[in-house]
């Protein structure tokens, strides 16, 4: 049995891709996933280049596993993901002990690349973009819990001026409807209760239908809603530019669609949004939220923000702060702008000192955390339908479940409840989690 160590950087998309790497390798031989690189036969890094820090971390981590390869030259070291896609051969030049380099679109070729390396003795680099082939070769998703991520589309064609994703993952490409549905029906039959439809811009979904027609994202939501056994639906990430009326109507009609939405806004300033090439104004974003809250007054909204975009003034940052308060965003992600080579924004003059960017990051996080605490406190005394995920990370005597609005709830319960939907009365709230009492009889 081969021991595989895999380290994943970055987003949910990468978590998903790491799972796929393991499944592709497991098609050919028995595998055991290990949590430390010592004694592993295959060491894989699934990398992220969205921000500079994550990118540089890869090279320092590679340096750390080099000694294992020196002791045992049969170990295979592979680098996948977006840094691989962007750097290609440079990775092997910088770290000659790396055996295979593959991009997000060629991870299904991993077994072949490893074989080729063994036979030729030469490092293998394949960072091409054969999107269709990738979806053809993906093994069925494995069930790891009551919740499953299903990739419905890949890539991004939005070309925000700060972002590398369109260059590293390629243009938007949707999986055919039948493939997505077959996967979801299979998962539901194996006991999966919650689906999370995954893609860089899920609302750009345009899946081919068996009759040759095209299924858009709103139609897909309605179809998945009817799959027996699926009790909860989420998606990530969607883009404000394509958040159509038809998608908004799904919040009126589809009770399985959770009242929690991650909709990246990036900034509250129209000048900055335009320089970012986001394709909407703050008012247009607010209008989407107003319509959604008409159907779902309890909608929890999370977002991504970039502070310190080149030329962002104090007044423009204040517009972001104000918008966060107006919309009452839930727990969100705030990033300091990181110039990415090859993106248009990297050429813009940037005279905001780093200390000031850090101050903006902290100020924004403070406002968002206050709102998150307020939402958590408002949940005390309510009964929440939750999916039990497993044993609590904080206390091995407790279980951990997730609410529809993506809160972790710790409660006392039987491990037999794992992957079941249960009702929990919330009794206490903290900044990042809740505590509650189970309301059903476990027997
Ligand atoms: N597809 C998503 C969307 O609709 O915006 C975003 C995907 S991106 C990988 C995730 C987040 O990383 C973005 O929303 C943005 O906030 C952040 N990000 C991307 N490029 C960045 C950069 N150069 N510097 C800082 N943050 C960045
Ligand atoms: Fe990046 Fe903008 Fe696409 S943030 S992933 S280019 S929507």
Describe the overall structure:
The chain is α/β, with parallel strands linked by helices. The protein has 14 helices and 22 strands. It has helices at residues 12-26, 52-71, 81-87, 89-94, 110-120, 131-137, 165-169, 177-189, 217-225, 245-253, 270-275, 282-295, 314-327, 354-378; strands spanning 2-8, 31-34, 42-47, 76-80, 100-102, 124-126, 147-151, 153-154, 173-174, 194-198, 206-208, 214-216, 232-236, 260-262, 300-302, 304-307, 333-336, 383-391, 399-403, 408-411, 421-429, 433-438. The longest helix is centred in the C-terminal third of the chain and has 25 residues, at 354-378. It is globular and about 60 Å long. 42% of the residues are buried. The mean pLDDT is 93. Residues 11, 50-51, 156, 162-163, 165, 200-201, 237, 239, 264, 266, 304, 306, 335, 337-338, 340 line the site of S-adenosylmethionine (SAM). Monomer. Its main location: cytoplasm. Its EC number is 2.8.4.3.
Ions, cofactors and other bound molecules: S-adenosylmethionine, FE3-S4 cluster
Kindly report the average pLDDT value: 93
Strand fraction equals 15-25%
Multimeric status of the protein: single chain
Q: Which bin fits the share of residues in helices?
A: 25-40%
Low-confidence stretches: none
Strands, total number: 22
Give the spatial strand order of the biggest sheet. 2-1-3-4-5-6
How is the topology of this model organized?
Blueprint: E1 2-8, H1 12-26, E2 31-34, E3 42-47, H2 52-71, E4 76-80, H3 81-87, H4 89-94, E5 100-102, H5 110-120, E6 124-126, H6 131-137, E7 147-151, E8 153-154, H7 165-169, E9 173-174, H8 177-189, E10 194-198, E11 206-208, E12 214-216, H9 217-225, E13 232-236, H10 245-253, E14 260-262, H11 270-275, H12 282-295, E15 300-302, E16 304-307, H13 314-327, E17 333-336, H14 354-378, E18 383-391, E19 399-403, E20 408-411, E21 421-429, E22 433-438
Parallel strand pairs: 1-2, 1-3, 3-4, 4-5, 5-6, 7-10, 10-13, 14-15, 16-17, 20-22
Antiparallel strand pairs: 8-9, 11-12, 18-19, 18-21, 19-20, 21-22
Helix pairs in contact: 9-10, 10-12, 13-14
This protein binds S-adenosylmethionine and FE3-S4 cluster.
Family: Belongs to the methylthiotransferase family. MiaB subfamily.
Catalytic activity: N(6)-dimethylallyladenosine(37) in tRNA + (sulfur carrier)-SH + AH2 + 2 S-adenosyl-L-methionine = 2-methylsulfanyl-N(6)-dimethylallyladenosine(37) in tRNA + (sulfur carrier)-H + 5'-deoxyadenosine + L-methionine + A + S-adenosyl-L-homocysteine + 2 H(+)
GO molecular function, one term: tRNA-2-methylthio-N(6)-dimethylallyladenosine(37) synthase activity
